[in-house]
């Protein structure tokens, strides 16, 4: 029962015996652990109204494996490479990548914080291109 000042919960004893006191004396040897029979503790069960069950953890791991094994071409492969470098990098490398990319307008990407941290990163357009600064 839920009341404004308290909550009452009725529980059933696991063994039919008389308790001498309500509080435990601190001996953990007598405590029995509840282990539900027939359930696998490694598999998560999610509530569902479906007639069949799915192992969502397995589905997630399968999708991650497919993404890892996927072979990309061109810009997508280059973008994936930079994402992997950034994800696996340390704090200094991440700072260097962010600063160099931001200050150069996306034309330079450096992982060396000792070099990038000292001074502003200049814009270096690709070969055959020139940089134009647009004023708003």
UniProtKB/TrEMBL annotation:
The lineage of its organism: Eukaryota, Metazoa, Spiralia, Lophotrochozoa, Mollusca. PANTHER family: PROTEIN SGT1 HOMOLOG (PTHR45862). This is SGS domain-containing protein. Signal peptide: none annotated. PROSITE patterns: SGS. GO terms for molecular function: protein-folding chaperone binding. Residues 45-136 form the SGS domain. Pfam families: SGS.
